[in-house]
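Agenda item 2: pyridoxal-5'-phosphate complex prediction
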Amino acid sequence: MSTPILHQAYNPTVFHENGQAVLDMLHKHLTKMQDPGPTKVIDYIDPEEEYQFWKDHFPKQEKLTEFLETVLNRSIHIHHPGYIGHQVAPAVPASAVGTWMSDLMNNGSAVYEMGAANAALERLVCEYLREPLGWQQGDGFLTSGGTLANLTALLAARKAKSNTDVWSKGQSTPLAIMVSEQAHYCVDRAARIMGLGDLGLIKVPVDDQYRIKTQELEPLYEQAMNQGIQVIAMVGNAPSTATGIHDDLVALGKFAQNHDLWFHVDSAHGGAALYSDQYSFLLEGAAKADSIIIDGHKMMGTSSITTAVLFKNASHSYATFQQDAHYLWEAQEDPEWFNMGKRTFECTKSMMSLRFLSIVAEHGWSFFNDLVNTLYASGQSFAQKIVEHPDMELALEPQTNIVCFRFKSSQKNLDQLNQQIRKAIIEDGRYYIVAVQLKDGYYLRTTFMNPFTTSAHMDELIDLIISKAEHLK
Ligand SMILES: Cc1ncc(COP(=O)(O)O)c(C=O)c1O
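Presented output:
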């Protein structure tokens, strides 16, 4: 029996009024972000204080739009040109509009009938994404984030390469994955979830350019074999999170081939460069991989979280999970591309295809080319400014839009000084930058995610760093 609350909750007129109000609010927000003036990118508040604010604030009955506006005002602004921090895209409005619609439609998409259009569109997106790799015999799907995508690909690797059928029989022989010591922590986590333990992740040291030392591969492989560990996969970074530097995928691919290993490329960040006329060379060797992942919500401008897992050989994309679920699909053994829950970790999942394809529908495929070219060029320009500045030091020549650098001074502990600088920048709030621990110390880290972060913003950030440093020295 329906109740007044339920009537109100599903009232289309109320939805329209709320939707319109939120749209107006976001329109105002995005307009302001184009020329933010004194509006900060981040207004940092201590976590306990933030929690207390919401605890005190939330029970009040207030209009939905007022609640949402308060959320907006108390959050980091990813569309602010001063947002140069972690690798999250300022969502392209078209992607957000698609997500908004799909959130209302709520097509769960585990089985075909629960999202027919989404199933077909997801197949199309993955075909498009595979195109530059030349993987005509391949397949793929979308999943919720790079972390889950890496785990999914590595489970496929285990299925393909392990001497024993771990899925059915459990793990009896020790297995291992080889990966850069600079890999994102989620690869380590995936290995542990797979039950590989400490010895199951062979972390290969990197050279002074933060690329896997390819000469270390053979000895580490031999060492594992001598310990009775079966190495199943080689993982390459394209690029690594900390430095934005790409591993030598050609060499890693050859090594994997020589030892019959699964070759996986974690290109959560840099996979988007496959669609760039200027930077696709960075992915040279990726076509030799067995699997690759690409995050839409990093360098392709989509709303979070949207990741493609692509396989060179279509059958591998069906091999990861073997689950009987008679309440969902009738043909348990049949691949059935359109019943997506058979292949993804998720059962119900969001309509991620719309996050990509709303962008394409509005702006065409070349949007991705323009975005990558613009953002990577911003990385180069900023690096150049750092090199030219007498008080700054570049950690390494950037290949992407990730730039690591530090303020240099002969007067004080550099790590401590740069930590204090970062803290001061966050407290100031006009720019949001992050930090990274590299071999020789603590560095400031920027990732240019916003195509509207200009040369003038870069100069202003550098001036701000200098002025904070002057006060701290
Ligand atoms: C190289 C790499 N792999 C995986 C991930 C994890 O991706 P997600 O945050 O989408 O789970 C990241 C995130 O920064 C990354 O940089």
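Discussion summary: The pocket of pyridoxal-5'-phosphate is lined by residues 87, 145-147, 150, 184, 186, 241, 266, 268-269, 295, 305, 307 (CB under 6 Å).
Owner for follow-up: CH.
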